[in-house]
Every structure is written in structure tokens, then in C-alpha cells.
Amino acid sequence: MKIRKPTHEDRPKVTALLRSAFPRSLYESELVEKFHSNKTPIHEWVCIHINKAVAYIAFSNAYNKKEVCGLHLAPFAVAPQFQRQGLGSELMRFSMRQESIKTATLFVLGNPEFYRKFGFEPCIIPKCPFDKNNRHFSAIRNTTATGFTVGYESEFGINKF
């Protein structure tokens, strides 16, 4: 298995992976497709095994009004047949060692117990527009002291600011 930046040729493989990992949703695969077609700057890595994408992770800008205040981790997926084998954890640790990620404030909307093992903690501020009461919103290196609703890239389907 090899972790690397995805190539243009990997895009259909990433789409197939996201559709298999999220079988009831096209949101994740369409989100990544929109990032690429709009040339939105993202940080992304893919794990390739026998010419197939088996894990994927992406980070996009998080905003406090018009200022970048960190990165959102989304989407993050592991092919169903490779889940619970440590591959997702390996990809997460790899991405968090990368220069563009290792000092940034990171936000994630997901299972707080899973992300806690990577250093994420419950996030009270800023507020997440997708998660009433921030019950599933976590952050790492979050030094935010003033309240605001965190913004996402327009591809997520909500207003950025």
C-alpha cells in the first residue's frame, strides 16, 4: 500500500471509494468532484492498493468571516473491506505529519471518540453550522477565544461566511 497525493488518474478511483464507503450518500464524492472542478485549494492524500483507492482524506479551508482560521477534515473514508485494520488511523497520522497540516487548527465533524485518539477535543467555539450544540464537532490546536460560526468552502453547500 502506498499513501500519496492523488493524481488526475486517481480521481475516478477516489469517487468509487467514497461511494462504497458512503453507500447511501453521493454528498462526499460530489464534494470532492466540486473541489477539483472549481480548483478549490485542498490538501488530500489517497492510499492505493493494487491500483485501487482504499482510503482517502482531504482538508479544506475553515473561515472566521473572510479570514482562514484553520482547516476542515472532510471527507475521510476507508473502503469497507479495509475498515477496522488500522489503515484509516495510519492515513490520519500520515496526513497530520504533513507540513501543510501539522501546525494548523483542524476541525472535524464526526464521531468524537474516534477522533479523540488523534488529539481532537470537543469544540465549543466556534459553532458548527452542520451540528446543533456542537455535539459531534471537534478540533485540534483550536485557540479560538471569541464566538462565531465557522465557515466552509462553498462546495459544502452553505454560505462560506
Secondary-structure blueprint:
Blueprint: E1 2-4, H1 11-21, H2 27-37, E2 42-49, E3 52-64, E4 67-78, H3 87-96, E5 106-109, H4 112-116, E6 121-122, E7 137-140
Parallel strand pairs: 4-5
Antiparallel strand pairs: 1-2, 2-3, 3-4, 5-7, 6-7
Description:
This protein has 161 residues and is of the alpha+beta class. The chain has one domain (2-156): Gcn5-related N-acetyltransferase (GNAT) (Aminopeptidase), CATH 3.40.630. 23% of the residues lie in helices and 29% in strands. The protein is built from 4 helices and 7 strands, in the order βααβββαβαββ. The protein has helices at 11-21, 27-37, 87-96, 112-116, and strands at 2-4, 42-49, 52-64, 67-78, 106-109, 121-122, 137-140. A 7-stranded mixed sheet has the order 1-2-3-4-5-7-6. The mean pLDDT is 94.
Note the total helix count: 4
Distance between the termini: 39 Å
The overall pLDDT, averaged over residues, is 94
Mind telling me the CATH class? Alpha Beta
Q: What spatial order of strands do you see in the largest sheet?
A: 1-2-3-4-5-7-6
